[in-house]
Amino acid sequence: MTLAAALLLGACSAEEEAQAPAPRPVRTITVALNQGGETASLTGDVQAQDQVALAFRVSGRMIERSANVGDTVKAGEVVARLDPQNARNALRSAQAALAAAESQLVKATNAFDRQDQLLKSGFTTRAQHDSAMAGMQSAQSGVDNAEAQLKIATDNLAYTQLEADGPGTVTARGAEPGEVVQAGQMILQLARQGGRDAVFDVPAALLRATPAEPIITVSLASDPSVTAIGRVREVSPQADPVTRTFRVRVGLDNPPEAMRLGSTVTGHVKVAGDARVEIPASALTAFNGMPAVWVVDTANETVSLRNIEVLAFNPASVAVASGLDAGEVVVTAGVQALHPGQKVRLLGSGA
């Protein structure tokens, strides 16, 4: 009986060994620490670094506007004119007033000279002498005033011509010939030649996450192959009351000709982020009602479940806040068919 039992047990053991399941093949990845950060993209447009609204310094009826939107103008070029008739009349009136004042000054000066000679000879009184002096000084003040009025009238006549203060391109117009315009009213908007800005409306959260003095890659929305490098030149100190975003102007370094004024562009900037572990979303399962992953013991080639804390989740990947360390091996495919302690055969990395 003893020998038979031994033979029977040996046969059963050999049969069990023959029926032992083969290690299950699984696909895995080795956990790596992602340094964090991502690329943020915003849409904006190209504007001139320096834009100026050209306006008359006096009011009047505009009789001519020689420049239109899209035209290129030179420094000192006359782009619009007001009716100069009233200014010319004012100039003639000021010239006449000056001539009259100068005549009064000659008369008062002669009177004072006579009184001065008479006083030295003792043939007049000090009161008469002082009165003549006051009259001469008053006449001199009248001449000074008339000269100032003539200068104002001369300038006002010159102001009936609107000149470009520098070379540039007209981007907008604010009045048409025949209209009565007021002093300071925008007639033409001029984008001065020189630098160009890419202008974006940026959320406050992105401003906080952006590093100091970031380098921004700007590309044309219609042709992403046309790119330029830019740096932040100006950030609005106050948020827009409606959108609650901040206007940011990015100065472009040597922008290509294709980036014309008004072109729609996309800005790309690397924003700061904390270092974190990321795994494919397919590796995620659940254990004890919490997120978990299958971790491979590479020495024994067995798997075990481990709970993790998820920081962020999207359809492609999962950011892990805690529970995994860099260098550990995690199963990414076939997680539903595993059980703790199961032997596995690694197929390599991949999701």
Automatic annotation (TrEMBL):
Highest taxon of the lineage: Bacteria
Entry annotated with the keyword Coiled coil: yes
InterPro entries in UniProt: Beta-barrel_RND_2, MdtA-like_C, MdtA-like_HH, RND_pump_MFP
Domain Multidrug resistance protein MdtA-like alpha-helical hairpin: residue ranges: 91-160
Protein name (database record): Efflux RND transporter periplasmic adaptor subunit
One Pfam family this sequence matches: HH_MFP_RND
CusB-like beta-barrel domain span: 201-269
MF annotations from Gene Ontology: efflux transmembrane transporter activity
Organism: Ancylobacter pratisalsi
